[in-house]
Amino acid sequence: MNDSVLTPERILAAAEDVLRRYGPGKATVVDVAQALGVSHGSVYRHFASKAALREAVLRGWLARSMAPLQAIANSRTPPPARLRQWFSTLRQAKRDNVLGDPELFATYSALAAEAGEAIAEHKARMQQQIASILAAGVASGDFRALDPPAAARALFDATARFHYPGLSHLWNQPGEDAAFAQLLDLLLAGLAPAPAPTRRRKPAR
Amino acid sequence: MNDSVLTPERILAAAEDVLRRYGPGKATVVDVAQALGVSHGSVYRHFASKAALREAVLRGWLARSMAPLQAIANSRTPPPARLRQWFSTLRQAKRDNVLGDPELFATYSALAAEAGEAIAEHKARMQQQIASILAAGVASGDFRALDPPAAARALFDATARFHYPGLSHLWNQPGEDAAFAQLLDLLLAGLAPAPAPTRRRKPAR
DNA sequence: TGACTGACAGATATTGAAATCTGTCAGTCA
DNA sequence: TGACTGACAGATTTCAATATCTGTCAGTCA
């Protein structure tokens, strides 16, 4: 355990391991130091606080989980299909996590609840990816003229039911897949290019 | 406190009062009995358990909170505006609760978390109201042909971000009103009558 | 007779003393 | 000299003893 010098990277790896094994409630800085064969004081030379260390672990996890989504956002799939694929992948990734390893997922969630800043940035990056798909779709004529960032936020909000971890208890309900497909259909219909002149009884305020 | 005979109604009123004052964590059956000037054994002649009593209180609260929404669903406002009004009212009611009396709201939420059954029924009733608005809109030609119950669920899911109590911590963020308006616009666009023949690169599976 | 009481068993919650943890820093050691 | 240690103060958590609560039921009383 005591190879080479102590680096932030080695501490991060150990912290991740300790968090996995002990869970967010029991993992202590002393545990991390012990796993590295150093005193806990040494950890504080590289991370200002326990909170900072946990946040760094969280950021690593978030960055890794973003990679496949980024790849989709950058792909050349036609924008409507790309958007579908992006959201389906997001949802599936979360589902796999929660159903596959609930304890680890709970650990994630606990760290996320502590680190509002990191989460806000993560959400912003996700919405940027959506916005880039929307912009491509507007350019190609697959979507109607719209403000990509604002519409991205609307889409992200609209699908929160299916990706926000706090609602994961709903993800096992019957008809969940159909409900998600239904929602994507509705949203994509709302993004479609301007229809025939809208017939309205009153100009919708 | 010891007027007339002991009825379920009097017990419910006392229980509601005790819950308000002590909160969901401290309110006990003994407290309720004390407020009524009877022994706690008497309470069990009318309610099978503490859980049943709490659920009855919750059902009362839910029924009261539904009334204004039911009125809107039954109104003759043109369906698109009616749908907007319904969701805006739902959102505003929740916001008023959470911002106006957070402790009471927390009490609600705690009871709701215990009573899955009652909540499921409540959600079903809400979605029935939405479906009735949708059906009216389909009939009038304001909405495209769609399956009202399925679309109602999609709409309810899509707006969860703005009405699900577990997400109330987001309701104070800047731009919240704009985001909600944006989402409603997108959803209503998705409900609009069939546009010009949809141009698609691939038939969207 | 039937609504109500109150004592009881087992389950749950509270409490405060003891243990552990976080974050600091003067001192060690290579 | 500078990475690391380990003892320390104050904050937080644990744990077991104690108190309270839930749900039952034989018995009271009007």
Question: Describe it for me?
Answer:
2 copies of one chain form a homodimer. The first copy, chain A, is mainly alpha-helical and 205 residues long. Chain A has 10 helices and no strands. Chain A is elongated and about 65 Å long. The termini of chain A are far apart. The relative contact order of chain A is 0.10. At the A-B interface, helix 5, helix 8, helix 9 and helix 10 of A face helix 5, helix 8, helix 9 and helix 10 of B. The structure holds a DNA duplex (30 and 30 nucleotides).
So what's the overall shape of chain A?
Answer: elongated
Q: Structural class, judged by helices and strands of chain A?
A: mainly alpha
Biggest pleated sheet of chain A? none
- What fraction of residues of chain A sit in β-strands? under 5%
Series of H and E elements of chain A: HHHHHHHHHH
**Strand segment count of chain A:** 0
Work out the helix count of chain A: 10
Multimeric organization: homodimer
Helix content of chain A: 55-70%
Q: What is the mean predicted local confidence, pLDDT of chain A? A: 92
**Which parts of chain A are unreliable, with pLDDT below 50 for 5 consecutive residues or more?**
196-205
- Largest interface, C-beta closer than 8 angstroms, per-chain residues: A-B, 43 and 42 residues
Rg value of chain A: 21 Å
Distance between the termini of chain A: 67 Å
